Amino acid sequence: MISISKLLCDLDAEGDGLRYDAAADSEKPQISAEKQHRPVVVWNTTRRCNLYCSHCYAGAQSEPGSGEFTTAEGRTFLDQLAAYDVPVVLFSGGEPLVRDDLTELVAYASELGLRPVLSSNGTLLTRERAAALRDAGLQYAGISVDGLPERNDRFRGSDGAFDAAVRGIENCLAVGLKTGLRYTITEANAPDLEGVVDLLVDRGLDRFCFYHLDYGGRGAEIADADLSPREKRDAVERVADLTLEYHDRGEEIETLLVGNYADAAFLVEYARETFGDAKATAVYEYLERNGGDPTAERIADVDYQGNVHPTQFWQGYSLGNVRDRPFGEIWEDDSNPLVAALRDREQRLTGKCADCRYRSICRGASRLRALSMTGDLFAPDPQCYLRDDEVRGAEPIAGGAAD
User: Fold this and answer.
1) What is the pLDDT of residues 126-177, one digit of tens each?
2) What b-and-e string marks burial along 344-357, b requiring 16 or more CB atoms within 10 Å of the CB?
3) Are the CB atoms for 41 and 301 separated by under 8 Å?
């Protein structure tokens, strides 16, 4: 994740230590006092979902999948994450709220010292359920809204999904559970971007996660609905502009970009144009600490059957199964050729990525998109929207160098 609000507005957030090794600079209580050394783990607790979203990376279905973890197996898996010192476990799905034992598993994660957070479509979040999860130790609920009512409901395959998600947001806020809004942009819902941000502010939310479409699961089936690189750049610029506008009005909204590290380079250029070289230098230095695309390093995914993946979007490739080996042992195994290549990607990138001056803060962005569209793991990300003069300039920041 790339925090626009941190980089452009100097807004403190609880993730400053984890993302930028900047806990000492923040007045907010921190998730971690230092940059993460273990991955955030997304756990797809179930394949089941009450909706059928066109972009679902997990390919969720209405029926349960075979081999789903029992409660006891889920607890054993959480023991593995705690033993490996994972900082955050993100309960996802499918829709995690279809599991009757979700509250128990969240409570157990919290007891182990893990930070439990939730990714949900929000439609099943009654006030009672939200309060129970809060009491169990849930630290945050990210609720997906992919447009205003008509577009959101079409995207999510269910009439009334928008209204139900908004009720879920309101229920979380009513019981004091920190809540944010997640929005994945495509051609179908791009016109609703400002409306979604306005919804966020109107409901009193203070966190907005803007997701790029990655080409995994059903997301791969709608790759042709992705924005063009030019449109993608315009959308990211709109998010940056909106962040500054709301900040100037006194709205301390944490705004994050997810899924395309070309955004990192863009924000350096945006900061230079908007604020000057000194700000661009500060933004670049934060992003260099962040380390670029985190796939197979600072993010991991474990599906409902226990298969470990390089990221939640890359479910077609398994690194091993936690029923056979502990998570930490699988994650540390560099003998896997894909893992080894991803962790050494900077020297393998081709095309414009190979000599891009922003290589160290982007690292080629999505290797999954590159592989999906070209068949080459190290080809340029087809959704890189940087101009040639931005890619090939001599220095990324005034007085600095890329390496």
Assistant:
1) 999 999 999 999 999 999 999 999 999 988 889 999 999 999 999 999 999 9
2) ebbeebebbbeebb
3) yes
**Helix, strand, or coil (residue 322):** coil
pTM greater than the 0.85 cutoff: yes
Measure the CA–CA gap between 310 and 299, rounded to whole angstroms: 7
10 Å CB burial of residue 120 (0-12, 13-18, 19+) is buried
Token pair belonging to 319: 């690194």
How does pLDDT run across 308-352, given as a tens digit for each residue? 999 999 998 999 999 999 999 999 998 999 999 999 999 999 999
Per-residue 3-state assignment (H helix, E strand, C coil) for 335-394: CCHHHHHHCCHHHCCCHHHCCCCCHHHHCCCCHHHHHHHHCCCCCCCCCCCCCHHHHCCC
pLDDT at 381 over 90: yes
In contact, 1 and 239? CB cutoff 8 Å: no
Backbone angles phi, psi at 150, to 5 degrees: -65, -50
